Amino acid sequence: xxxxxxxxxxxxxxxxxxxxxxxxxxxxxxxxxxxxxxxxxxxxxxxxxxxxxxxxxxxxxxxxxxxxxxxxxxxxxxxxxxxxxxxxxxxxxxxxxxxxxxxxxxxxxxxxxxxxxxxxxxxxxxxxxxxxxxxxxxxxxxxxxxxxxxxxxxxxxxxxxxxxxxxxxxxxxxxxxxxxxxxxxxxxxxxxxxxxxxxxxxxxxxxxxxxxxxxxxxxxxxxxxxxxxxxxxxxxxxxxxxxxxxxxxxxxxxxxxxxxxxxxxxxxxxxxxxxxxxxxxxxxxxxxxxxxxxxxxxxxxxxxxxxxxxxxxxxxxxxxxxxxxxxxxxxxxxxxxxxxxxxxxxxxxxxxxxxxxxxxxxxxxxxxxxxxxxxxxxxxxxxxxxxxxxxxxxxxxxxxxxxxxxxxxxxxxxxxxxxxxx
Amino acid sequence: xxxxxxxxxxxxxxxxxxxxxxxxxxxxxxxxxxxxxxxxxxxxxxxxxxxxxxxxxxxxxxxxxxxxxxxxxxxxxxxxxxxxxxxxxxxxxxxxxxxxxxxxxxxxxxxxxxxxxxxxxxxxxxxxxxxxxxxxxxxxxxxxxxxxxxxxxxxxxxxxxxxxxxxxxxxxxxxxxxxxxxxxxxxxxxxxxxxxxxxxxxxxxxxxxxxxxxxxxxxxxxxxxxxxxxxxxxxxxxxxxxxxxxxxxxxxxxxxxxxxxxxxxxxxxxxxxxxxxxxxxxxxxxxxxxxxxxxxxxxxxxxxxxxxxxxxxxxxxxxxxxxxxxxxxxxxxxxxxxxxxxxxxxxxxxxxxxxxxxxxxxxxxxxxxxxxxxxxxxxxxxxxxxxxxxxxxxxxxxxxxxxxxxxxxxxxxxxxxxxxxxxxxxxxxxxxxxxxxxxxxxxxxxxxxxxxxxxxxxxxxxxxxxxxxxxxxxxxxxxxxx
Lengths: 422, 482
Known about the structure:
Chain B: GO terms for molecular function: hydrolase activity, acting on carbon-nitrogen (but not peptide) bonds, in cyclic amides. Chain B: Residues 238-267, 461-482 are annotated as: Disordered. Chain B: InterPro entries: Amidohydro_3, Metal-dep_hydrolase_composite, Metal_Hydrolase, Metallo-dep_Hydrolases_sf. Chain B: Keywords: Hydrolase, Signal. Chain B: This is Amidohydrolase. The structure holds two protein chains of two kinds. Chain A is an alpha/beta fold. Chain A has two domains: 4-76 and 371-391, Urease, subunit C, domain 1; 78-357, Metal-dependent hydrolases (TIM Barrel, Alpha-Beta Barrel). Chain A has helices at residues 2-17, 124-129, 184-198, 213-223, 236-249, 265-270, 296-302, 322-331, 336-341, 345-350, 397-407, and strands spanning 23-31, 38-47, 50-55, 65-68, 73-76, 78-83, 133-138, 147-155, 163-171, 228-233, 253-257, 275-277, 307-309, 368-371, 382-387, 390-391. In chain A, the strands form two sheets. In chain A, strands 1, 2, 3, 4, 5, 14, 15 and 16 form an eight-stranded mixed β-sheet that branches. The longest helix of chain A is centred in the N-terminal third of the chain and has 16 residues, at 2-17. By secondary structure, chain B is of the alpha/beta class. Chain B has a domain at 101-239 and 271-420: TIM Barrel (Alpha-Beta Barrel). Chain B has helices at 2-18, 145-152, 201-208, 217-237, 272-282, 294-307, 324-330, 354-359, 379-392, 399-402, 408-414, and strands at residues 48-56, 62-71, 74-79, 89-92, 97-100, 102-107, 155-160, 168-176, 194-198, 286-291, 311-316, 333-336, 366-368, 431-434, 445-450, 453-457. In chain B, the strands form two sheets. In chain B, strands 1, 2, 3, 4, 5, 14, 15 and 16 form an eight-stranded mixed β-sheet that branches. Chain B has an eight-stranded mixed β-sheet with strand order 6-7-8-9-10-11-12-13. Chain B is globular, with a radius of gyration of 22 Å. Chains A and B meet through helix 8 and helix 11 of A and helix 2 and helix 9 of B.
């Protein structure tokens, strides 16, 4: 898994350096999201798309642009949660949505890989990016199968290919009931059968096979410890079964959702299972979420679980809302530093890209955001985003629409359609 | 002290003037008779003096170091250095912020409750494109745990609407956010009903999908017009518009005293559907239209003129910013999200400054709404996002202005601005005490008062309601809100 990640990020480095600008950001409150914590009045030097130096009073090498942060917060570019950015343009219009496979005859397709459908020119990319989001985990959603397929991490800098290892998505619990014989017990029955197939205990030509040969090979890779299996699950009882299954099969899992994960916090910490949670979930939206609470993040973190954030609903278009999740988790007991880590270091490490992304440190990709104030508070906004050292245009289709109608009727009384933006 | 009192006195005038939508006359015609009347009674309260807070009145004023005195369920006085009358509980609110109770004009709590099981799916009567005969209140499950969660977010009043599957979805009801075993015990006394209508994609998708009309936007408009043609005819046969001198009658008095509209009835059979539409034309029922696109909103404005009704608010209005001046001219509020967009085609042009741009024209009426069991818990944060994005676009909105989006403007669109939505002497004591500036992600509502009763207190578990549904559930978190 590690070597696969390094190989992929090496390729990324080449792509990201194209057009990189060198910049010295002076006098920032640098939230490293790493071991150094927060550094007041600190400079960050970026050259060749990479962070070269972090310290006070750095000298600007010749030809390096200087930005005065005036003491404002500087963070790593944020993780946008588990989304379909670049996989869906308009959720309600099926031809624009590519994140699930629905094949009737052989529904279980672990080999399905949504990253092949990723569109780096999607207008959701700049919409998310201008809010300080620098990377996201693309998810395969359940269509006709509760083993949904694979996704991967993309960097929202316009690059076309995912980085790091792939992740396999599985959905358990009530949400997958219709896809698994209408019983969550059947989910384990079917998963066990798939594992048996992938491990070669069921002949490839068995008439009972659930998987294609390609699916068998892909699942075998995850069973062999390559890549993480991200399991969408909420109910504590299901999480308990999942932890047993993961220990028995020796697979690396992460939990997404996890409304009742706090009930198994010590076990999750012991098993080193990170949780991607929706920190706003406090209603018993269904019977798998009876124990949902705003204290979920705080309880998990206090027990030693690595907590990252993702949204249960509208995660793609409103990916920017992930900041509000972290802020509310902090308002309900999570330490501020852990709130920031859940948007930066934790997801990067959990997804195998922590060697490049998620922290501010020498040698890391210069994916940075300068904020108007506390980045976890919705009353503040991103002022400037750099990805791979490049200052990203702080524009999106939404800011273009805003500016068109802010200006109102143009000269000569022409309609707004004559206003084309900067 | 003096200038504060003067400011407060001035507020009453502003409040009255700002009340553009007069509350509907109580049951002026039989179309607005209420056979399911409110049984709401304020919960027990004691006189309370909240001392030395930053007070946002809801109608444009910020008072620093101010006191709020609540007595007999109403706001008695606002000022600094108020005397504490005997028997008054004094609360030190130093460092706290006080706002009017938060109002959500678009909620489906109770009709799409938690848990969201099929048995609870009571928000859309998707059996005909015009179901003006159905009333959302008859679907409300008062045990929805979402009510208590909303209360912890400062929600004191909310309008429950039918969903948007239909051209005309039915009547919405305005509730006090108090724990109760019946919806009647939550019903806001004297509040007019809302009529829920819907433009655009939902009706055409739902009925087009069944192979019936409407399947297009032109089919939608034909459907509204057919319904209002029927209602106009019904109104004519049933004595025309409003009676010349509507009888003065309190909400709790029955209508069967021989003086109502029905006394002059031409003898035609009552039609529940047409009752509602006729009530809307008469202005007794306030029209709330789910409508995303700017062009469709202008169509609906013309429809309203064609049949002589007024639109209280467009809901969702993702493109409202494109017609902000028009909405202000017509006196129509925009009840909007801070940032939702893109989930369907008619939501594609969403921008995060929508509310700020609708707020901008003179007489603009911007409202933050939720349409969500999550969003209703933190409308203050939704407003904060708007402030932040407006600031980035060069528009500075102070908190004393933004709070109106959640309070007085919302009350205006529901026809209850004479009772709630602002902190003014004589208004209902619907009050939220926040631990800090409410326009921060870290702000918590510490105390919530409805009619002067402390019905939520973050630091007092005995003042935290819990739905029957949550009782005995084994999974409650230590210190969880529900």
